[in-house]
Design a protein that fits this description.
722 residues; Rossmann fold; 46% helix; binds zinc ion; ATP binding; Helicase_C-like; SNF2/RAD54-like_C
Length: 722
């Protein structure tokens, strides 16, 4: 750990203790990863003010993604503070004497178990459950007291008299509201050092973020009104999916600035950032051909005129949001619509009032056939490939239990052994199922069927190394959470995350919105709860979302206007394409543009619609992915996934026997089978490594430093390997 400088000594070492080195307990250091040690250093330096001196209290927010070991890092810091102090006095060796850990009631015992697990009996931890009488224990002999938030709220006077040296708040978004009783009670304890732990620091809005920062460092972000004006308003405005480009740009700029300002107080690492220690992960987005039935129903639903919003108040018709939900279900499988459309209830009536004759396109009974869903057909092909060529296990995630039901039936008929966790499985039995899945061989348990809602809470499914997302959520953070179930510390195998989209449909629109939002959330991990989605859609926007674009294998790639032609080339290659070209006027016009844009603007119409250009910039991060157009047989097989290659190759073969066309015909979805994989976006490990290295190097200003040299060497080695 760092040593105190002169200023620190002047303020904190009035009695002239000897300055000594402070170390992480060897018991813990032995098992910790470098990123965790880094985290301990960050927390220690923050709460002891070794990084920078604070006027009042000192604290930090540890916002690492779930699964990276926030608890272990915290225990290591608590242990240091209880046993050591950088100013040594023979009679008082510790920095603090008592630590208060506040967490949700369900986690109280867990903290005690974790202390026991890592430190054995070295640390005296007292756990106060619901029935504990705080009065009788608060002055007792313990070093760490773990309580739930309610206890602190109800007995704040008692707690403040017990003089704690460090406060740890787990799941700290509990204190997001400055006016809540919990926040006020915690504030009244006047504890000098504070650590906040959370996996998602900004859940709903930036006011909460402000409250959290203000809680650990009062006044750090200035007064609330100014913060609102400078950050909250512009950033929130730029997060709306239909906002003008300049708002989006301003939001990007401000969220980066805010990130920079709060960096000394906040540490956030994603699983991706520590990836170099995990096996590689491949993100693969599969754009699949809809089934003929899906195509028929989608065409009927999408061609309806929009109901005017004012009309809605008087007529019992569907809102735009309800229509979106119907389409989302349809993208999963037509069966999901049967009850809604032909049901006798209120919804059924409203659907009939809105879509009229289009009702007849939806079958009256569930077909339960895999070939009626493009995504399930594609999934099935991949499952067969995985089963045949590997001994990998698989997790299948869906938002809809009925989709899981359909797949479950398929598993039964294919004799694929499976387990299932959905909302009906009690939390108590969940961990047993998790354990069974992770420990059994793939021949005994091949598949885990998981409902997205049940899968969010700390679930570990590391036994699998392939995961399929069957539908995507408007909130990228939620999808991300589900994907994190398999790629986490301890995973030994290379991981493949497949996201299945139905080409040309709402799936693509959601994906595009996720990507344009991710720009912001990367910068400040904004995760928006999209409950007010309907209000966010302007009429024009809604029309766009509901449009069915089945004349192209991938409308997302069309929007990018990428010059790769779907041949699977990487950003580097795109850059090379431009190198010899002299810039044109239009290039200068787009100085901040990204590779690919200039060329595209040259080849396409001279005057591209401004809106399209802007959307393209919002999707710019997709240039880090490779794009493969598999709707043309000659593009087959270029990915890093042997299973996908195997499927694509087989698809291509069966197609070339089916038709002997010259391949230049315009795309037609109806000429392809249900579930044919038309397009693939894949993020490869090569890009990932480069990104990480770039970050590392940029920290170093001095080019001659040994660290930079070592990194350059490492980079060269990696390039060799790949
Ligand atoms: Zn491309």
């Amino acid at each position: 750990m760092n040593r105190p400088d002169a200023k620190h000594q002047e303020r904190f070492n009035l009695r002239g203790g000897e300055v000594v080195d402070v170390h992480i307990n060897p018991l813990l250091a032995r098992v910790m990863r470098p990123d965790q040690i880094e985290g301990v250093r960050f927390l220690y330096n923050s709460v002891t003010q070794l990084r920078s001196l604070m006027p009042e209290s000192a604290g930090a927010i540890l916002a690492d993604e779930m699964g990276l070991g926030k608890t272990l890092q915290t225990i290591a810091v608590v242990d240091i503070l209880l046993r050591q102090c950088c100013y040594f006095f023979p009679k008082r060796r510790s920095t603090v004497e008592k630590v208060l850990i506040v967490c949700p009631a369900t986690l109280v015992r867990n903290w005690k178990l974790e202390f026991k697990k890592w430190l054995g009996d070295e640390c005296r931890v007292l756990c106060a459950d619901e029935n504990t009488d705080i009065k009788s224990v608060i002055y007792g002999k313990y070093e760490v007291l773990v309580v739930n938030y309610e206890k602190v709220r109800n007995h704040s006077t008692l707690f403040s008299s017990a003089k704690f040296g460090l406060l740890v708040c787990d799941e700290a978004h509990q204190i997001k509201n400055a006016d809540s009783q919990i926040t006020q009670a915690l504030d009244s304890l006047r504890i000098e050092r504070k650590i906040l732990l959370t996996g998602t620091p900004i859940q709903n809005n930036l006011t909460e973020f402000y409250t959290m920062i203000n809680f650990i460092a009062r006044g750090y972000l200035g007064d609330k009104a100014k913060f609102r004006k400078d950050f909250e308003v512009p950033i929130t405005r730029g997060r709306k999916p239909n906002c003008p480009f300049r708002h989006w740009q301003m939001a990007e700029e401000r969220s980066r600035l805010l990130q920079k300002i709060t960096a000394p107080l906040l540490l956030r690492r994603t699983a991706e950032a520590v990836n170099r220690r995990l096996p590689p992960k491949h993100d693969i987005v599969l754009f699949c051909n809809p089934s003929p039935l899906q195509h028929k129903i989608y065409t009927a639903l999408a061609s309806l005129e929009l109901v005017n919003f004012e009309q809605l108040a008087t007529e019992p018709k569907l809102t735009g949001l309800e229509r979106i939900l119907l389409l989302q279900k349809l993208c999963s499988a037509p069966d999901l619509l049967v009850d809604d459309v032909h049901g006798k209830g209120k919804t059924g009536k409203r659907i009939k009032a809105t879509i009229g004759a289009a009702c007849d396109t939806v079958p009256r009974v569930k077909t339960r056939r895999s070939q009626d869903s493009g995504k399930i057909s594609a999934l099935l092909k991949l499952l067969v490939g995985i089963r045949r060529k590997t001994d990998d296990k698989v997790v299948l995630v869906s938002n809809f239990t009925m989709t899981l039901d359909i797949i479950q039936e398929i598993c039964e008929s294919m004799r694929y052994p499976f387990l299932r966790i959905d909302g009906n499985v009690k939390p108590k039995t969940r961990s047993g199922i998790e354990h069974e899945f992770n420990t059994s061989a793939s021949k005994d348990c091949f598949i885990m069927l998981l409902s997205a809602k049940a899968g969010g809470q700390g679930m570990n499914l590391m036994g699998a190394n392939r995961l399929f997302m069957l539908d995507c959520d408007w909130n990228p953070a939620r999808d991300h959470q589900a994907m994190g179930r398999i790629h986490r510390t301890g995973q030994k195998k290379e991981c493949f995350i497949y996201r299945l989209m139905l080409s040309g449909t709402l799936d693509e629109k959601i994906f595009q919105r996720q990507i344009s939002k991710m720009g912001l959330s990367d910068a400040l991990m904004l995760t928006q709860e999209d409950s007010n989605l309907a209000e966010d859609f302007a009429e024009e926007e809604l029309r766009d979302v509901l449009r069915y674009q089945n004349d192209t294998p991938c409308s997302t790639h069309d929007i990018l206007q990428c010059p790769c032609g779907g041949k699977g080339i990487l950003l580097d290659d795109v850059n090379r394409l431009f190198q010899d070209r002299t810039p044109t006027e239009e290039d200068e016009d787009e100085q901040d543009s990204l590779p690919g844009f200039m060329m595209a603007s040259q080849v396409t119409e001279a005057n591209i619609n401004r809106k399209v250009k802007e959307t393209r910039k919002k999707l710019a991060s997709l240039f880090d992915w490779t794009h493969h157009n598999f709707s043309k047989a000659e593009n087959a097989v270029l990915t890093q996934d042997e299973i996908l290659n195997y499927i694509i190759e087989r698809d291509a073969q069966s197609e070339s026997t089916a038709n002997n066309g010259d391949g230049d015909e315009p795309f037609s979805s109806s000429s392809k089978p249900s579930g044919a994989i038309l397009y693939v976006f894949a993020k490869q490990r090569r890009m990932l490594y480069k990104e990480n290295l770039k970050e590392d190097i940029s920290i170093e200003d001095d080019d001659e430093s040994p660290k930079t040299k070592a990194l350059m060497r490492k980079k060269a080695e990696m390039n060799d390997v790949i």
